[in-house]
Please model this.
Amino acid sequence: MSEIPTTAEGWCEMGGRLILQGRLEEAIAACEKSVEMNPTLAESHYNLGIAWRRLGKIEPAMAGYRRAIRLRPEFADAHNNLGNALRSLGKLDEAVESLKLAVGLKSDFVEAHNNLGNALREQGNLDLAIACFRKAITLRPEANAIWSNLLYAMHFHRDYDAKRIYKEHRAWAGPLEASLAGEIREHSNDRSAGRRLKIGYVSADFRRHAAANFLLPLLRNHDAGNVEIFCYSGVPRGDAITAELKRMSPNWREAFALSDGELAERIRADGIDILVDLSVHMAGNRLPVFARRPAPVQITWLGYPSTTGLSTIDYRLSDGLLDPPGGEEFYSERTIRLPRSFWCYQPLARTPEVNGLPALENGLVTFGCLNNFAKVNAAVLQCWVECLREAPNSRMLIHSLEGSHRQRVVETFERGGVSGERIEFVGRLEPAEYFRLYHRVDFCLDPFPYPGHTTLLDGLWMGVPAISMTGPTAVSRGGGAILTHLGLKDWIVGSSQEYVARAAEMCGDLAKLSNLRGNLRRKLQMSPLMDGRGFAGELEEVFRKVWRTWCG
Model:
């Protein structure tokens, strides 16, 4: 039994040990005892902040960090943790300020450079964000999670084409694969080509997240006689969607607390035949697990249509619209094109019925963009300025967290001759509020080069189409692919000039817009984009095909 501390410093040290052990309530009690004995010990308040944050209690966590900073203004770690907490609340300006203080106090603070990059990306400051990620990687080249932040951010930036993106992915993957080559072993899986297959899905997004829109219809429709499903969940704290997904998975594995090596061994022990990455380089991915090749066949799908960079992942799933023939040299994996669509969608929330076209009631056309604001770059803003200028009787609704970046948007419009009063911002919304917001939008203006994928489908479900520009990468073709499945090719454009002209054209035919609005949900329901049973069958056919290849 540990000796009971007799000093404030001793209780603080005990609190830190208990945090590392995951005994958070006990850690809080120990730190509070330390504070009682010596309220001026900054580390005790800091540890309290960490414990509260890990319990998901943001406000008391920030209070702990702030007390630590008041007692020790040069406490870089407290500034970093406070900035991260502020970012989670959507207070981006305050987050950036705290994180800049952290790196100013400690120039080699890897985590703070990375966190600052994340906050800047959410403000749409992609160049600065990418510079922060590169700085962090320079300081710690083996930091896989930071590399993932950098590689994902590139897809939002117009200066990164498929060739450059692939080169950067291989720069990350090569050293990682070399370091883990010794952990790859032969697989003893039964090579019977027609037997029931064990399929493992790996994700940190078995929760209320865009990925769940596509996982629910898939897991609900898998043929249990053909495949046995295993889900390796990296969710730290589940929600109602987690519970629903868990009910559909006969073999649920909690993976958040497992190291990459431990998770790889668990997958091997489960005898997984085909292991599927569902994240690519999105937050919480477990790509270093796939670099260890714990399953004989490995596939990436869903997160977004791109490459992981890993040669240990055999295949990437796509479709013929996202990946027309050519360009295979820009993927480390072999591309398998699904017969119809990369996506199969289901809205997560209970949604309202589609309403009438707002413009017919209020006399104004309302453009909307409810995408992640990180996708809104200078070229997108300029395009929107011209759309509003060409359609004087219009306004625009933009999803954006609060912060100075909103003023930057308004100033861009006003420099282009469009009054800032025609722009409205909406912040973070609950799912039901988010879907109701589409009742105010006549049609959306998709960002580029990363258009809406899930957000576009949400809008279409609510009867709201979008003008979407295609580009040179699979990600940039996502909007066009979705619209093509619904026969909406007249909403797909190939240039900024065409984008602006099409917006003006759509504003001029409200009767056509109104008719489309009334039919879109039904179109979506009847399309491959919502055929859960058909999609699951197609995916199982792919699994069987690649399994036979391995057996042969």
